[in-house]
Amino acid sequence: MLNHKDFRKHAHELVDWMADYLQDVENLPVKSMVKPGEIYQQIPAKAPGTGESMQQIMRDFQQIILPGITHWQSPNFFAYFPANSSYASLLGEMLTATLGAQCMIWDTSPAAAELEERMIEWLRNLLGLPEQFTGAIQDTASTATLTAILTAREQATHYSSNLTGLQNTKTFRIYCSEEAHSSVEKAVAIAGIGRENMVKVAVDDAFRMNPEALSVNIAKDREHGFTPLCVVATLGTTGVTAIDPLAAIGEVCKQQNIWLHVDAAFAGTALVLPEFRWMIAGIENVDSFVMNPHKWMFTNFDCSAYFVRDKEALLRTFAILPEYLKTESRGSVNDYRDWGIQLGRRFRALKLWFVLRNFGIDGIRERLRNHIALADEFARRIEQQPDFEMMAPRHLSLVCFRYHPEHITNEDEINKLNTNLLKKLNATGRVYLTHTKVGGKYTLRVVVGQTYVKKQHVDAAWDLILQTCLAVTV
Amino acid sequence: MLNHKDFRKHAHELVDWMADYLQDVENLPVKSMVKPGEIYQQIPAKAPGTGESMQQIMRDFQQIILPGITHWQSPNFFAYFPANSSYASLLGEMLTATLGAQCMIWDTSPAAAELEERMIEWLRNLLGLPEQFTGAIQDTASTATLTAILTAREQATHYSSNLTGLQNTKTFRIYCSEEAHSSVEKAVAIAGIGRENMVKVAVDDAFRMNPEALSVNIAKDREHGFTPLCVVATLGTTGVTAIDPLAAIGEVCKQQNIWLHVDAAFAGTALVLPEFRWMIAGIENVDSFVMNPHKWMFTNFDCSAYFVRDKEALLRTFAILPEYLKTESRGSVNDYRDWGIQLGRRFRALKLWFVLRNFGIDGIRERLRNHIALADEFARRIEQQPDFEMMAPRHLSLVCFRYHPEHITNEDEINKLNTNLLKKLNATGRVYLTHTKVGGKYTLRVVVGQTYVKKQHVDAAWDLILQTCLAVTV
Known about the structure:
2 copies of one chain form a homodimer.
Chain A: H1 4-24, H2 54-65, H3 87-99, H4 110-127, E1 134-138, H5 141-156, H6 161-164, E2 172-177, H7 182-190, E3 198-201, H8 211-223, E4 227-234, H9 246-256, E5 259-263, E6 288-291, H10 293-296, E7 304-308, H11 311-318, H12 349-384, E8 388-390, E9 398-403, H13 411-427, E10 434-438, E11 441-447, H14 455-471
Parallel strand pairs in A: 2-3, 2-4, 4-5, 5-6
Antiparallel strand pairs in A: 1-7, 6-7, 8-9, 9-11, 10-11
Helix pairs in contact in A: 3-12, 4-12, 5-7, 5-11, 8-9, 12-14
């Protein structure tokens, strides 16, 4: 078993491995090439009886585990949305792990609670959110959106749903666009409201929620005896980064007295740029808001910032006080276990503090603008190539496109062609892209958002795409 | 902003800081001494415009943040339950942060999914859980217990509650002992069942759930038209580490066809010791089970192992498949986003693998037995001192006691005395203890469970307690 002296030695060795890895990561196959079961079969079925050396463990890590890693920190990673790290964030994570503090309440690490409070303020200011907003760092947007829906549920039942349950209550309805994230549906199910009561509002031709359709949905629901509870608007949908029109949606919510939650998990980071503040016109009618520094703000997963206008509503929904958690400081401090679902909490504010200070606002802006410019350049290449087709307007750093040679007109064939193209591209190991469907059409997504992505990586991806298209068949 | 070369340099410096910290941590005040607002006031209200150097940030970390940390990794930490780290775990966390992989599905890092599968098997085997159990690593027991209750809810409604909600359904009842953790109550509220439908079953004089009382509660509920849904049994309650009689509870659940979830968050680790396997007599009637390697198994928070007998029930409750998450491997691999609430997932299996291999089964057993022996010795001291009183039977590594000089007979005075004693003890900075109430009586808790705690630390704590008692008044 490692002792203190061993630890120092191994940690130094590991740092060199880490630095080498990050230096070389762009040369590794981005998406792991292993077959199902390949890693599993190499791990023994049982834990060893006696301890093994770190040399052995690290050797197995490199030989067995590493080939099974999809390299999210590669600048050739263009898939999903990024889950970025950065050098500063990594140092913060090392410290968080070292302190090993369980930050459930103020007493169990006052610095964690108070730094979290400040970081929420820093972010609020950076993103241009209203002064009244306060909040907490959660693990994921899934959890934050669930938190929002539960708070809306409690408020709408005059704080009785936690106590008496949803049996024999009104039937609530939740609204989001057809393009909203699956976590909304999951949250609606968990909260006991029922997926059938999630209304998918129609979108316009840019895949944005149609506020008139929302109004009609709500009116119809009221007619049928349903109780509209909450609208989830999305800034930057997962499929195509559509930006729901917040101002118009907010007006509807205000008139109808409905909780408005905003899922800006990815695109929220762009609010650091003044030129994207238009996305939150109408924020005055928003009740809660989530954005993930762990996506595009260079901060290791997990770090999801949840903001809420009515702090009391949040606390009344989640506060619980068993004897063993009573403290003298209670009431004069933030006990963040009352701001969400889980009791246990990591010291997540630390890495965010490291990132925001080491990058500075200018540093973050510069990097974001660079990503967006690279995405724009990529989009223009798509537009200029007659064999390619843009599948949605380019917002921020996501480009949605497909390969569509003029001579192929059958939609099934085009879908097949693009499915094969994606498979071939990812099989090269030189890029990792993922897909979505746009109006039933198989669509490739390129997100230019990885922390250390440069023009050369986007250029190489483009060349690879052109080259691979030549070889792809239906 | 840090570049690659800077990172290597700073990471090496940080490793020396980390090693020094862990070497010195026992000399730091265990519980932070800061006043509310003290840290907050030292952090500027806004993020800096331009980036700052790591030297500046690390200096502030040491000067501002460190005094606000409660040192969970100090061997003088006897509070709550431990949230242990270890050298091997820490190295694992460094790697997880470096890879920065988002392990939501198999494709996004096959090694993470397959190592997680193996780690669940290793733990199952280590703890003596049934072969049919499978599961996933979750963040916290709060989440795991919520997962269990949601799965029970879905199964009991023939998989309709997710779809149609709980409006107009039967009124479900959840049972746990009076001593169960607050996360059960929180989960019942979140799931839309209502706290009023959580029945707190009476306990015996060792604070264990009374299975006869459970039977009576269930029968009475059925008479009144309620639908018994789930029993949450606790192995190792937070207050006094009471062990609910699983065999008898399991019989009731079997006869009544009720989901049985076991919260063994802390005490589950003791199942690695054959002499504690009696705790899971009756496991054949258990449907789900949670234990936290991040408590007493030397693995950094967060790492909570959730086991379930009927994998299909779990997947039918949580599976969701939007287009952008469809993969070719789907169906032949474990996509762990379908095994719980959140979509996003850290690579948590890695640190657990590091710990289990570096310690080995023998190493874990040795350390646990040592902790338990130290707690036993401490308990015997309490018993032998006429001015002290044991407040609950000593189980595992928790000792519940109070100071009770013969001449004080008024219960309020004794409570006050012990409140003051705890405050004085923690104010020395040399130990950190927390409290609970046992039958309304203010009770001090000493948990001997921190990874690197030795006899000398427990001896010093005992001496300090004796010394502090002399000075404490009502």
